[in-house]
Amino acid sequence: MARAPAVRRITAPVREGINRLAGILYDFLPLSSRSPNTTTFRSIFAESGVETYLDGPSNKRQALEQGLSELLRRHPKLPFTVVRKVVPAAVEYRKYRRNPLKRAEVASLSECLGELGIDMRAELADVELDQRLPRVTVPPGELTRRLRGYDLDATLASEPVELFANGHFNEAVRKATERFEDQVREVSGITAHGRDLMARAFGASGTIDTTGLQPENEEDFRDGYKFLAMGVMAAVRNVFSHGDEERRSPEECFEMLLFLNWMFRALRPSDQEG
C-alpha cells in the first residue's frame, strides 16, 4: 500500500512567516482577473494543478495566506516553481501599472522565503528590474483628432494626415519629409536633393522667414535651421524611405509631423520674392 505524502506541520512561527510572505506578495500580482491574458496568482497556481488552494476566502490576502500555507504543507518543492513564475510576471504587471517592482521588495521576498526554508537568494538577486516608467500611450484615433485640429501647414494637412489616420504612420512621416524637400526646392530654386539641397538652400539668406526675430539672432537661427533641415534628410527622410524600416509608434510619428510642421513655418512662402 502506497504511503500518503507527508504533510508539513505549520507551527506558529511558520504561520507568522506565511502571513508575512502573503503581505509581501500582495502587491506583486492580482489574485485573479477576468482577462484570460493576465497572469495572476490563480493562473499560476492553476498551472501546477493547485488552484483550489486559493478557494474559500474572498479577501485577497487571506486567500494568499491559505494558498501559500497549503503549498508549504503539501509540496516542499512547488513554492520554488510558483515564485519563479510570480516574480517575472510581477515585473511586467507592475511596469504596466506604472509602479515598477523595486529591488527592496524582491529583497524582502528573498529574506522571508529564507526564513521559511526556501533559499532563493542567489536566484532572486539576479532578477533584472527596470525602474523606468513606461510612456503613457495615446490611441492613434486621438492623435489623428489632434492633428486635424492643429494649425498644420496645408502641405501636411492633406495626404500625410490621411496616411496617419489610416494607420500608415511611417509612410505619413516619409511623405511629409518629401513635401518639405519639394517646398525647399521650390523656394530656393535649387534642383539638388537631400542634405546637399538643405546645405545650399539655407547657406544664404532669402529662404527662411525671419519675421519676429531680433536682427542679432537671424544668423544663428539660419545656421541652426540649416543643420536641422540637413538632419531631417539624414535621420528621417533617408531612414523612412527604406521599406523595411521598423514600424514606429504612432506617438513618435505624431511628434515628427509636428516638428516638420514647425520647419514648414520658418520657410519663406514660395510666392514671396527673396
Q: Ranges with pLDDT <50 over ≥5 residues? A: none
C-alpha-based Rg, rounded: 30 Å
How many helices? The count is 13
> Secondary-structure element order, as H and E?
HHHHHHHHHHHHH
Helix residue percentage? 55-70%
Mean pLDDT: 90
Q: Beta fraction of the residues?
A: under 5%
* Number of distinct beta strands: 0
| Total individual domains | 2
Task: Profile the largest sheet.
Answer: none
Secondary-structure content class: mainly alpha
Describe the oligomeric state of these chains in a short phrase: single chain
Write down the overall geometry: elongated
First-last Cα distance: 102 Å
In short:
It contains 13 helices and no strands.
List keywords for this structure.
2 domains; 59% helix; mainly alpha; 274 residues
Structural commentary:
The chain has 274 residues and is mostly helical. The chain has two domains: 12-125, no CATH class; 140-266, no CATH class. Helix content is 59%, strand content 0%. The chain is built from 13 helices and no strands. The model has no long low-confidence stretch (mean pLDDT 90).
Furnish the topology, listing elements before pairings.
Blueprint: H1 12-25, H2 41-47, H3 60-74, H4 78-96, H5 103-115, H6 121-125, H7 140-149, H8 154-157, H9 159-165, H10 169-188, H11 194-201, H12 218-240, H13 250-266
